[in-house]
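Weekly modeling sync, notes
Attendees: S.R. (lead), two postdocs, one rotation student

Agenda item 3: backlog of single-chain predictions. S.R. asked that every request posted to the team notebook include the full sequence so nobody has to chase files. The rotation student volunteered to paste the first one in as an example of the format we agreed on. Action items at the bottom.

Example entry:
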Amino acid sequence: MNTFFFSRGIVESVGDGVAKIMGLFGLRAGEIVTFESGIIGLALNLEKDFVGAVILGDDRLVQQGDEVFSDKEMFQVKVGLDLIKHVVDALGTPLDANIDFENFETKLVEIKAPGIIARKSVNEPLRTGLKSIDSMIPVGRGQRELIIGDRQTGKTTIAIDTIILNKPNMKSDLDKNLFSIYVAVGQKKSNVSKLVTVLLKKKAFDFGVVVSATSSDPAALQYVAPYSGCAIGE
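Predicted structure, as returned to the notebook:
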């Protein structure tokens, strides 16, 4: 028995930023689809007779009956040194300026993390500038650390202070500088603008990237923003 894979489907219904697509068989979870209007989607829910794809853009531009195409490509974002000192959206598209990408590559957003043996050992501390943290809860460069707490308790302040304290020394080697990727999810555009202004004023944005998925962006973009930020950082 032969199995046929189709690269074109039809939108059966749209609701809450999710499109139900018929006819796109053989898709993988995390694969990108392109709607007739040019908006892209991310295939997540794979059922027997249909595919559920979150719309990474304005879902008002996707209508019932629109054609959907697939190039069999997984979700990727642009990464590289050209992103430094720029604000990008959850798809890696610059928001503050037009970048002529010359030194970049694309990286899969959903990849398996390297094993513990392949990783470099954590042997250098990462200072936050807060004595209580640096003395009682030391953080190492390359280590994962969760900052958790209720609203207005200073989580963002800790992260920003750490970025400012570890701003790059241009006289040192490139490999010794700390790259900072700040992902703003569900925040106001004005707050993101203030954050960037502070980083520029403190000269802490020379090796930094801000990934912005504001409260006005679709929920799907807010969902993928942390994944894109990790891919850019890695």
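Discussion: group reviewed the output briefly. Residues 43 and 53 are 4 Å apart (CA to CA).
Action items: rotation student to repeat for the remaining queue; S.R. to check formatting next week.
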